[in-house]
Design brief:
single chain, seven-stranded parallel sheet, about 25% helix, alpha/beta
């Protein structure tokens, strides 16, 4: 087994990761696509850099809380489409460490280095998100054309008609990726966005060559050239959705704790019950949940966001064995009943999406393989069960039927 194959297994075992979208777009609070959607020229948009202070930023606290929430890896937006860099890159002054940015005096001004170091210390895997597009770079969005406000997400020119500009952009992109891949410690994932920047669209940055250069020193690194396919999309990334059926390739569903990927004032965060339901539905289909958390402009993550994650972490401390390291198990899902497996052990997870839902006295588990016994995951106690033509009929202990509706009941089935 190669180093990369081992890393794919690590990824599939992890099942739950943190996604962090953070950048200048947090200041206007109108989403990470605001610069393009509003067609704002770079020289106007970059004024937000002078408002980026993030005085309360503490990556050590974020890392500790992420670990307590049960997260196994983090993917940070080192650079989104707007081009603002959260690390001390040598290739542009459009970065958190630039003198024009008031945040440059902060002890964690190199956000990427500080965060990667903090999360590694807590034992989490490290992923660097990097946008292949760059609306701030004049070799992608030409300054003169950007001022006409007729820009799209694409370059303002055809790379075939201006190969010199495209080659400058390609080299700039290569140099920045290699900076992250060679100067920022061990990486587990290189997560590339802007799928329209691809050879099939006439926007070839020769990403494979860049990834292979990183792999000379970090051969295990997974590449995610999302939506492009091929050798450098080592796992797929459905966004803001959960597939209806299991996928037969490694995958993660990119979801948000709040309403969107960007911080918004007065945001509503998913509850513990909602998060458990999402995670179980994803893992039962063989995927990971990459849950996005959006920091505020001042560098804090809201109390309400952490409270939701704390609740999920508490559930995972008890029931994590039914999530971590598991694989798909037919029949996968049947209504609000989900299945996972690990070796000779099958987990049946009865979800209760709604508070106030009555818990049944008996439950039919539609699993028809030969088994040796069944117990509750939380109490370790054996339960009454009977094999029928339809599956396994179990008696639900009285304590689960009294009081508040449980988020889930989880059985451990030994084959």
């Amino acid at each position: 087994m190669t180093e990369r194959e081992k890393r794919v297994q690590w990824f599939q075992n992890a099942r739950f990761g943190m996604f962090l979208h953070w950048g200048l777009y947090a200041i206007p609070g109108r989403g990470e696509w605001y610069m393009s959607n509003a067609r704002i020229p770079a020289e106007q948009y970059e004024r937000y850099m002078q408002e980026f202070t993030a005085k309360a930023y503490d990556p050590r606290d974020w890392a500790r809380r992420a670990k307590r929430a049960g997260m196994q890896y983090v993917v940070l937006t080192a650079k989104h489409h707007d081009g603002f860099c959260l690390w001390d890159t040598a290739y542009t002054e459009y970065k958190t460490t630039a003198e024009e940015c008031p945040f440059h005096t902060h002890k964690y001004a190199d956000i990427v280095r500080a965060m990667f170091d903090a999360f590694r210390k807590e034992g989490l895997g490290i992923g660097a998100y990097f946008s292949k597009a760059d609306w701030h770079c004049p070799d992608y969005w030409e300054t003169e054309k950007a001022l006409t406000r007729k820009t799209t997400r694409n370059p303002t020119y055809d790379p075939k008609e201006n190969p010199e500009a495209w080659e400058r952009f390609r080299a700039f992109t290569r140099d920045q990726i290699l900076e992250l891949g060679k100067q920022y410690g061990r990486l587990d994932i290189l997560w590339f966005d802007a799928g329209w920047v691809a050879a099939a669209n006439g926007q070839d940055i020769r990403l494979g060559e860049i990834v292979e250069e990183v792999r000379k020193t970090q051969p295990w690194v997974l590449a995610v050239d999302r939506t492009v396919g091929g050798a450098y999309e080592n796992y797929v990334t459905p966004e803001m959705c959960v597939p209806e059926k299991p996928l037969r390739v490694p995958w993660e569903s990119c979801l948000t704790l709040g309403a969107d990927f960007n911080y918004a004032y007065g945001d509503h965060y998913k509850s513990q019950r909602e998060l458990v339901n999402l995670l179980v539905n994803i893992v039962a289909k063989g995927g990971n949940m990459a849950l996005n958390v959006s920091p505020q402009p001042d560098g804090r993550i809201s109390v309400e966001a952490w409270e939701s994650l704390r609740g999920l972490g508490a559930w995972m401390q008890t029931y994590g064995e039914a999530i971590y390291g598991t694989r798909i198990c037919a029949p996968y899902q049947s209504g609000n009943l989900a299945f996972t497996q690990k070796g000779d052990t099958v987990y049946a997870i009865r979800l209760y999406p709604e508070e106030g839902e009555a818990v049944e006295e008996e439950l039919l588990i539609p699993y028809q393989e030969k088994i040796r016994g069944i117990s509750m995951v939380d109490t370790k106690k054996a339960v009454e069960w009977q094999i029928t033509e339809e599956g396994i009929r179990v008696v639900i202990p009285k304590e689960y039927r009294e009081g508040d509706t449980p988020i889930a009941i989880v059985w451990k089935i030994e084959r």
